[in-house]
Amino acid sequence: MELVNIFIKSAFIENLALSYFLGMCSYLAVSKTVKTAFGLGLAVIFVLGITMPINWMINTFLLGENGIFGMDLTFLRLILFIAVIASMVQLVEMVVEKFSPALYISLGIFLPLITVNCAILGGSLFMVSKEYNFGESVAFGLGGGFGWFLAIIAIAAIREKIRYSDVPPALRGLGMAFILTGLMGMAFMGLMGIDPNAF
Amino acid sequence: MAETAVVVKEKAAPIKFGKKEKKLLTDPLNDNNPITVQVLGICSALAVTTGMKNAFVMSIAVIFVCIGSNVITSTLRNIIPSQVRMIVQLVIIATLVTIVELTLKAVSFESYKALSVFIGLIITNCIIMGRLEAFASANRPWESFLDGLGNGVGYGLILLIVAFFRELLGKGSLFDFKIIGATPDYLLNTTEIGWLGWYANNNLMVLFPSAMFVIGIVIWVHRAWNPSLVDVS
Questions:
Q1: Which of these, A146, A198, A161, A156, lies nearest to A181 by C-alpha position?
Q2: pTM for this predicted structure
Q3: How far apart are CA B83 and CA B71, in angstroms?
Q4: B142-161 pLDDT, tens digit each
Q5: Any idea what the Cα angle at residue A145 is, between residues A13 and A181, rounded to 5°?
Q6: What distance in Å separates the CA atoms of residue A39 and residue A46, rounded to the nearest whole number?
């Protein structure tokens, strides 16, 4: 029950894209059509779900004071996390290419792009700062990925429609995407109630 | 006269500061701004702009990492094998970010707490990776230094503009100094009054959607002022 709570919370209330602004670069760059957004969203769920438990284990068993080295190595955290993410993305890419070429082609260049998607590294860092245990970190990873997936699908659908609207020329494209994301953020904020001390 | 001076300098050392170098430095401030034109590094730009102080610290950190990683990568550009270049670049960036993180923790623990994970996220800040890929891996260290400085400052500039409006309208202050509006302090039973005492702080400006609106408006103004940037698609 606790895990379901964390899943729901990380997917909706603390949405990685719409309340922490993580992964905004690919979120804005890849949200021009729903189809590509769908592929990227799936890949993000997958990579977040895999890297989160691995980074949890690294943080606990290698870097912590109770780990195998018996000393505080947390200053290595960033380097190890990003190395895990880069190598997991590489691994996922090879596995998908081997076993499901169709999915590989539909994901295309978005798989390698995920390495520099800050939602992935950000998720791992949040997991550390929130002191989750193993099961909770899995739920947090999957929930966070699902929330990001929902957000990018929604913005892509809106951007497809708004192309037919009469937007001032200087605001077309990127500017409008920002304002739409702000409006979506306000909608998501309704889920937690306005909390002025949120920051 | 200026011409000869440049030539003399060029003979003495390869480091020079001519028109091309100046363009490297000023381009990212306007025509090729990392945030409003290249759409890189948005995540951190939105999250740390609740106050001028955070935005300022973040800008300094990004400028440092951007310059450092650009110079190191371009110094090593002929040694790094191209197959593993992403991982090498990530290690360079991660090392510099770790330096920044530990320095900030030692110097200003308060800002370190306020910026929390966003200092760590400089690693995945696309500006840095993007400049390494697009510029530093093919150019000499001096030009890369200028490019890093220009992009870092271009990023910081937008950050400070956004933070200015968000902090002024959301908290009525700038760099934590009271400017406009009145804030009652119920603990001390006093009221801090700035100019325009009738102004009530708009809490929405401190929350996340307003960052989107402010950046959207900055982009709008920027493109209206510089029509060559308008998105035609």
A1: A156
A2: 0.78
A3: 20
A4: 888 888 899 899 889 888 99
A5: 60
A6: 11
